[in-house]
Design goal:
Among the domains are: 2-179, no CATH class; 187-301, no CATH class; 456-515, no CATH class. A hairpin with a 4-residue loop joins strand 2 and strand 3 (270-273). The protein has 26 helices and 4 strands. The termini are far apart. Helix 6 (107-116) packs parallel to helix 9 and helix 23 packs antiparallel against helix 24 (459-471). The longest helix has 23 residues, at 74-96. A 4-stranded antiparallel β-sheet has the order 3-2-1-4. It is mainly alpha-helical. Keywords: TPR repeat. Pfam families: Transglut_core2 (PF13369). Belongs to the UPF0162 family. TPR repeats lie at residues 305-338. InterPro entries: SirB1_N (IPR032698), TPR-like_helical_dom_sf (IPR011990), TPR_rpt (IPR019734).
């Protein structure tokens, strides 16, 4: 890993024609000897630094073999210089990301990498050759190539050259991972190799909170994730799925509320891959909350829609709800009957003052009830019952980061909303959580008790109340709110770990005799 960083840093800093060491240096031979035998990108970077040295030429042969180029292949003999230049260009795009001024791969370079990548498994998908978004939309999910579908949806068919450039970079990433695997490697070994490549070699990571809040769009779409090497859960999960497609590993896509992760499943077990935590496995129960009773699985087509839903959230922050609705409409092509999308569109229309259409969507959400949740969001009821206000809905969607200023700004907006409509349940609950976020525990507890008096049917609020009352040694009250939370969850045949653990703690502090 340290050698890899040194080679790439040297390549990016001094360029491919400025070797740091003499061509015959023993140190050069030592560096070449220390390159892991199956490290395609490291061999390519070494050649790019020392193209005229014997070691550099050997590194090139090694890299081409690892990439799948047969030296005796007539294509290689005829196109070798172009292929070498293509790989070097793609290497730069992989490791530096692509700033605005950097050129994408040319069609000729893309074609040469495509020749190497002919055996990647995504070549079997009908969607691999789609030319327009409409062609993607008519395909069944299992035939969609996620990278092609998402890039067409984002960039449009007029940007096919740029789309193919991004795909070629993904292909080279997949070839690099495959080079380190044994033939017929077990799926678990392939997953381990993908994790090592994305999170160790490439250093993909979750962006800082302040950057994420401001640029969630930058860290969602595949092109931006490749360019920046940063991604939110959806962005890095999409990258992971694109590489898994190429390596023939079928993945499930799972979406707890506000999150996404990917999963590999075989006949005996499954592996959850948490892309915000370097690909570690977390048990399913870790993703289930007091209010979430089951995990929703998505297909590839729906993931493209979710990328547009994430993009729409950017415009809530600026109050540009017409633009948010445009992205929701785009998402609707991929999520035609999705309750979450209907709910978000209903809120946006309500905040815009288009209440008739808003009520139609939110009534559908209320009547059908999301089967993955213990209860519907109180904001649905607030809008339909006349307790919400347009400005209050905007306040609920305000983002906060780690700064006190952003937290205070949201508090003020929520307080104003409650002054306008004192029975606005969602605003009251959000104000309680915001106050707790400001470390004002006593005030936050009072607000939660006010919320309970207004709406005693929210299992998450009852859980928070029980926890806070336990912290303040008000044990009998803590028991009362825990039992309310348990009863509400049990109505939906749900018994989450959080409530079980809280019960154990209360039984230690206050067994039956003290109640």
């Amino acid at each position: 890993m340290h050698l890899f960083i040194l080679l790439i840093a040297s390549f990016l800093l001094v360029g491919p024609s400025s070797p740091l060491l003499g061509e015959a240096s023993p140190k050069l031979r030592a560096i070449y000897s220390s390159i892991p035998p199956k490290a395609l990108l490291e061999h390519l970077a070494f050649y790019s630094l020392y193209p005229d040295s014997e070691e550099g030429k050997r590194a090139l042969v090694d890299a081409l073999k690892l990439a799948g180029a047969g030296i005796q292949d007539p294509f290689f003999a005829k196109k070798a210089p172009l292929l070498i230049d293509s790989l070097k260009h793609a290497l730069l795009l992989i490791h530096r990301g692509r700033p605005e001024e950097a050129a994408p791969l040319t069609p000729e370079e893309v074609a040469s990498i495509d020749k190497l990548a002919f055996s990647l498994q995504n070549r079997k998908l009908k969607g691999r050759v789609a030319q327009t978004e409409q062609e993607v939309l008519v395909l069944p999910p299992e035939e969609i190539d996620l990278a092609r579908g998402l890039l067409l949806s984002q960039l449009g068919s007029e940007s096919l050259d740029a789309i193919r450039s991004y795909e070629a970079v993904l292909d080279l990433m997949a070839l690099s991972i495959r080079a380190k695997l044994k033939k017929n490697s077990a799926p678990k070994d392939v997953i381990h190799a993908i994790n090592a490549f994305i999170f160790d070699e490439m250093g993909y990571r979750f962006p800082p909170l302040s950057s994420f809040e401001k640029k969630v769009d930058t860290y969602t779409f595949l092109s931006s994730v490749l360019d920046s090497r940063k991604g939110v859960c959806l962005g890095v999960s999409i990258l992971y799925l694109c590489l898994a497609d190429r390596l023939g590993i079928p993945m499930e896509i799972v979406t707890p509320p506000g999150h996404i992760f990917v999963r590999y499943r075989d006949a005996l077990s499954h592996i959850n891959i948490e892309t915000t935590a370097r690909g570690i496995h977390l048990d399913d129960e870790e993703y289930l909350s007091v209010g979430t009773k089951a995990l929703q699985k998505r297909n590839v087509k729906e993931v493209i829609g979710l990328a547009h839903v994430n993009q729409a959230s950017v415009f809530w922050e600026t109050g540009e709800l017409t633009q948010a609705m445009a992205y929701y409409k785009k998402a609707e092509n991929y999520l035609p009957d999705d309750l979450l999308l209907k709910e978000l569109m209903g809120y946006a229309l309500f905040a815009k003052g288009e209440k008739e259409e808003s009520y139609r969507l939110l009534q559908t959400v209320q009547e059908r009830k999301n089967p993955y949740l213990v209860s519907i969001h109180t904001l649905v009821d607030d809008c339909l019952q006349g307790n919400a206000t347009p400005s209050g809905v905007l306040a609920l969607f305000m983002r906060v980061d780690e700064t006190n200023e952003s937290i205070a700004k949201k508090r003020e907006a929520l307080e104003t909303a409650l002054q306008e409509s004192p029975r606005f349940k969602s605003a009251l609950f959000a104000l309680a959580l915001n106050t707790l976020n400001e470390q004002k525990l006593k005030a936050g507890l009072k607000l939660l008790l006010d919320y309970h008096a207004l709406y005693p049917e929210d299992p998450a609020a009852e859980y928070y109340l029980s926890m806070l009352l336990l912290m303040r040694y008000r044990l009998q009250e803590s028991w009362r709110h825990l039992e309310i939370a348990e009863a509400l969850a049990l109505r939906e045949d749900h018994s989450p770990r959080a409530l079980k653990e809280l019960r154990k703690e209360l039984e230690k502090r206050c067994p039956k005799g003290c109640r």
